Amino acid sequence: MSRQSQTESTRLFDNSVRQCVRYVFCREADKIPIKRSEILEQIAPEYRKKSKNVLVEVEKELKRVYGYKLVEIKDKDKILYIVVLDEACESPPSRTTDLLQKRILSGALTHIFMSGRPVKEDDMWSFLDKSGLLAEDNISGRKLLTQQFTKQLYLSYSKMGEGELARYTFDWGPRANHELPKKFILQKVAVAFGTDPACWSEQYKRTLQ
Amino acid sequence: MLILISSCGRSKKESEPILLKNCIQEINDVIRPYQQSIKVTYNESTNEEVVIFLTHAWDSISESQKIFTAKELDYFRLLIEEIMSIDVREITGIHAINLVNKMGQKISMLQAENLLAKWCKMYYLEKIQNKYRLGVRTINEFEDYFEKYMPDVMKDCYICKKNVFWGANCIACEKAIHTRCLNQYLEKIKKWPCCKLDFSPDQLKQLNESQRMTQITQTFEDTQSIEERSENSTASNVENDNTEEMERSQNTDNIRRLSRKRKRE
C-alpha cells in the first residue's frame, strides 16, 4: 500500500470512529437502546467489514472523552447497545429530570430487589399505590413502567406461565443491573428502617454476588 | 449542560486549584474533533457569566436525536423566528401558544405549553412576566442559523461588534449596543458611544414607552404627523440659546421619528 493510500485509509478509519462516537452521543439521551446496525451505518463502506475494529476504537473514545461505557445487550437475535457511566460520579440532577418518574422507578426497583424474585404486576400496582408513588386507579400512569422503563431497559416486563395462569411480572432490566449497585439499594432501605444492611440477610447475600 | 462558574476543579496536588479557563481549554482540545465546545459567555438577561456546552454540527447525525420530534422542532423554529422578528424580542404566552396554528401538522396547546416549560428549563427560552424571550442557550447555539436565515434581524453591538440579542438601541441613530457594553462605557463617559448624544436614563424609559404606544394605538401615526408639522414650524421660528432645552426637544423628536419609522416598517 502506498503511503498516500495508507494515510487516506487511516483518515477514513478515524473519520468512521468519529462519526460513530458522535452518533452514540446524540442518541444516548433518551436511554432507548441503540441498534448495532444503526451505529454501523455511520462507518465508511470501506470499513464496514472491519466494523469490529472500528467499534473497539469507538468504545475507547467514548470512555476517554465522555466517561461513557458502551454496553452490549443481546436481545434475541439483535445486538443492542446502551450507554452507562464508566464510573459513578456525583453531579447535580439535570433541570429536565422528571423527579417523580425517578422516584417511581427507584420504588419499583427497590421493591423487586427486596422481594427477591420477579414481582407480579398486581403486586407492583398495589405496592406503588400504598407507598404513594402511583395511585392504583391511574391506569395510564402504569405505561411509565410497562412501556417507558421497559424500553429503556430499566425494567423487564415479561409473561410468566401459560394460558389462564399467565401473569406479567416485573424484574430488573439490564440497564438497572449496570447502573444501580444492589448494595446501594440495600443501604438506602436499611437507613429508612433505621437498621443495619446485614439485618436483611437474604438481600445482603445478593449484594455480595 | 449549562453550569454556572463557581469553584474550580482541583489538580492532583491538593493545594493547586486549576484555573477554570485552562480546564475548559483542555476539555475543548479533546472535544473539538467531535464538533463540540464549552463556551464561557455572558447571559445579559440574568447579568451572570455562564458556561455552556455547545454542539456545532447540524447534519444527519445531530438530527438523529430522539428527544424532540420533527414537529416539535418545527414549533421551536417558529417560536424563535417570531421572537427575532419583533423589535422588543419577546412574545406573550398566548402569542407563543397560538403559533401552533401556523403549523401544517398541529400540536395541541397542552403539548405546546409543556414544550415551552421544558425549553425554559433547558435555557432555550426564558420566561419573564409571562413573556417569552430567547434563552442564553438559543442565543449561542443559533447564532449561525440566524445569520444564515434571518440576516436582516441580526445587529452587531457598536462597541464589541458581537451579535446583540438583548440590549439598547441608541435613540438617535438606532445603533444596537449590549446593555453591559453600554453600562461599561457610561462608567467613563455619560454619552451614547455611537453618536455622542448625552445620555440620561430617562431616554431608555421614554424609548420603551413609545414602543408600547406604537404597538397599541392605531391612530398614533396620524397624531404624530400633525404634531411633527406643527413642531417643525415652531422649531424654525424659535431662537433658543438654552442648549439643554434644545437637546430635550431634539430627543423627543428623535424618539417620535424612531417610533414612526418602526411603525412604517
From TrEMBL, chain A:
The UniProt entry, under InterPro entries, shows: MAGE (IPR037445), MAGE_WH1 (IPR041898), MAGE_WH2 (IPR041899), MHD_dom (IPR002190)
Among Gene3D superfamilies, the record links this protein to: MAGE homology domain, winged helix WH1 motif (1.10.10.1200), MAGE homology domain, winged helix WH2 motif (1.10.10.1210)
* Domain of life of the native organism: Eukaryota
Its cellular-component GO annotations read:
nucleus
MAGE domain sequence ranges: 13-207
User: What name goes with this protein?
Assistant: MAGE domain-containing protein
The species is Bombyx mori (Silk moth)
Taxonomic lineage of this organism? Eukaryota, Metazoa, Ecdysozoa, Arthropoda, Hexapoda
